[in-house]
Write a structure and sequence with these properties.
The complex is a heterodimer of chains A (363) and B (177). Chain A has 363 residues and is of the alpha+beta class. Helix content of chain A is 37%, strand content 25%. Chain A has 11 helices and 12 strands. In chain A, α8 runs antiparallel to α10. The radius of gyration of chain A is 31 Å and the shape is elongated. The two termini of chain A are 48 Å apart. The N terminus and C terminus of chain A are likely disordered. With 177 residues, chain B is an all-alpha fold. The chains are: A alpha+beta (363), B mainly alpha (177). At the A-B interface, α2, α3, α4, β7 and β8 of A face α1, α2, α3, α4 and α6 of B.
């Protein structure tokens, strides 16, 4: 919607045939919108310019929005909705008539023998109230949850003790870096990045961080700066970002939109949330836009696409979760791995392991 | 979750915005309800044609627009110039409204509520009498001691100001429906 140049001055007298209300349009504005229909009104007006058509359409749309806002459309919408759902359910029942025919016959017999019972008005009202209650309960269950609820559910799911594997793809212009990350909530991860030299592996468990180059000893430290430095040097720009951390960041300072959509990744219907950063754009930790797909069966995040344009970075530019470009995080599988899986000793039993407490001083 | 359950959730989620769309084009309440039902049932029958990677709202409004035109042609038995353009514009406007903050259509209309409170008093009063109290213009004349022409002009100007106000609140992105 393009902003208009200036709001109309409400105190300015409106001339019927003045420049703001050309003659052709005046007949539309003279109508009581509740009794006229837009298409009917257009029929009686010849030679409207595109701007006048636009203006007429806007007037009817605002009228309709105001009717909705005042609750005047509520009954109408509910009636049409219930009729639609009823038609849908009838369609289901018709398609399964064969399997339920005995039940249907029994219902007919039962209803015939209870005619007198049904005719009592108090009973009828009680039954009607029960049906209404069931309908309301049902309708509550069948509504699309709001985005914050969906995010909260996805966050809880991402903190589970299962080990989830995601495929990572970072695109920066023509450059593309790929990797795999296995995460357990936001406590442990194993990130592997393909490079020309070979596989670079980064790990974290409850105790420490570690890094294994394609050859040589495994380096280990309890400092976050150590892993930040290793990622900066060896990951080809891929950050360490688990879904739980991303979702946590989205809960503040992002405008959220949600809908229900087919997720091509899992070929099932999913919730999709589009989060747009509303907070300080210079905060380099925050992606500009994050799109995530959540499996509606189990609230598991099946896909995330994070978009972040290069920003002026501060002193923390070695933060392990910083990236530039478009990062896709695609769910691969879920398993239940042993706790030791995230330890350097388990992954590289044949290699020497060097602890590097000094790394904290030289990120 | 079965396809019908998914469809039902989508139907509920889009019911209000669909009715607003239809009532923008058709003032007859019963006809609007019929068109609503026909739109939804057509959508259900054609779910296999719906690209499920695309948002549901615009697709639904596309069906509704065709249903409105068919209904209109059936009644008037003559083609209506520009009708497609007008329908497309209302569809586009409603798509843009989805860029407003909030999950549901009702929440998105918080912007409209705020805009109403910003109207100058005579216009705000006229809008409230017309919509909240559902008074027709002739009844508003009695309440406000003005003329019918003034009431109609106030209503039109107020709608125009509301549209301008909402337009300013709409963000450039985020059409999901």
């Amino acid at each position: 919607m393009k902003p208009e140049d200036a709001p109309p001055d409400p105190h300015k007298p409106v001339e019927k045939n003045g420049p703001e209300f050309p003659e052709a349009m005046s007949s539309i504005y003279e109508l009581d919108l509740d009794e006229a229909s837009l298409l009917g009104a257009l029929e009686s007006v010849d030679g409207l310019t595109p701007e006048q058509l636009q203006s007429a359409a806007d007037a009817f749309l605002v009228h309709s929005l105001l009717l909705h806002e005042s609750g005047a459309l509520e009954d109408s919408t509910e009636r049409a909705l219930q009729a639609t759902l009823s038609a849908l359910h009838t369609d289901s029942e018709t398609s399964s008539t064969a399997s339920t025919s005995i039940m249907a016959r029994e219902t007919v017999v039962a209803s015939q023998s209870h005619n007198r019972w049904w005719n009592r008005s108090s009973t009828r009202m009680a039954v009607a109230a029960s049906i209404l209650f069931i309908l309301l309960t049902f309708s509550w269950q069948m509504r699309l949850p709001n985005a914050k609820t969906l995010l909260a559910q996805a966050y809880q799911s991402s903190l589970s003790n299962f080990d989830r594997e995601y495929h990572l793809t970072l695109k920066r212009g023509e450059l593309q870096t790929e990797g795999t990350i296995i995460v357990r909530g936001n406590r442990a991860f194993l990130l592997q990045v393909k490079s020309i030299a070979g596989l670079q592996t980064f790990g974290r468990n409850d105790k420490d961080y570690w890094f294994a180059a394609p050859i040589g000893p495994v380096l280990k430290s309890d400092s976050r700066f150590f892993i930040a430095s290793m990622l900066h040097q060896h990951s080809g720009g891929l950050p360490y970002l688990d879904p739980a951390t991303v979702i946590q960041r989205l809960q503040e300072g992002y405008s959220l939109q949600r809908d229900m959509i087919e997720d091509p990744q899992i070929e099932r219907t999913s919730y999709r949330i589009i989060a747009t950063n509303q907070a300080d754009s210079s905060d380099f930790l925050r992606p500009d836009k994050v799109t995530l797909w959540i499996d509606l069966e189990n609230s598991r995040v099946t896909r995330m696409v994070l978009e972040r344009t290069a920003k002026q970075q501060g002193t923390d530019n070695h933060n392990p979760s910083i990236f530039d470009g478009t990062l896709s995080i695609d769910y691969v599988t879920e398993s239940n791995l042993p706790e030791e899986f995230y330890q350097a000793e388990t992954q590289y039993p044949e290699r020497a392991i060097l602890s590097r407490p000094w790394a904290a001083e030289s990120p | 979750m079965e396809a019908k359950e998914v469809f039902e959730i989508l139907v509920r989620d889009h019911a209000s915005s669909l009715m607003v769309f239809i009532r923008s084009l058709v003032s007859d309440k019963s006809a609007a309800e019929d068109i609503f039902q026909e739109t939804m049932l057509t959508a259900w029958k054609n779910m296999d044609k719906f690209d499920r990677e695309r948002p549901f709202g615009p697709w639904l409004r596309g069906i509704a627009g065709k249903t409105v035109l068919a209904w209109y042609r059936q009644r008037k038995k003559q083609p209506l110039l520009c009708a497609e353009d007008v329908i497309e514009q209302i569809d586009q406007r409603l798509g843009e409204l989805q860029g407003l903050a909030g999950d549901s259509f009702n929440e998105k209309l918080e912007a409209l509520r705020d805009c109403i409170t910003r109207l100058p008093e005579p216009y705000q009063q006229t809008i409230r009498l017309r919509y909240n109290q559902q008074l027709m213009p002739a009844a508003i004349v009695e309440q406000t001691q003005t003329t019918l022409e003034t009431v109609k002009k106030r209503l039109n100007r107020a709608r125009s100001m509301l549209l301008t106000c909402i337009t300013r609140k709409i963000q450039p992105e985020g059409d999901l429906t």
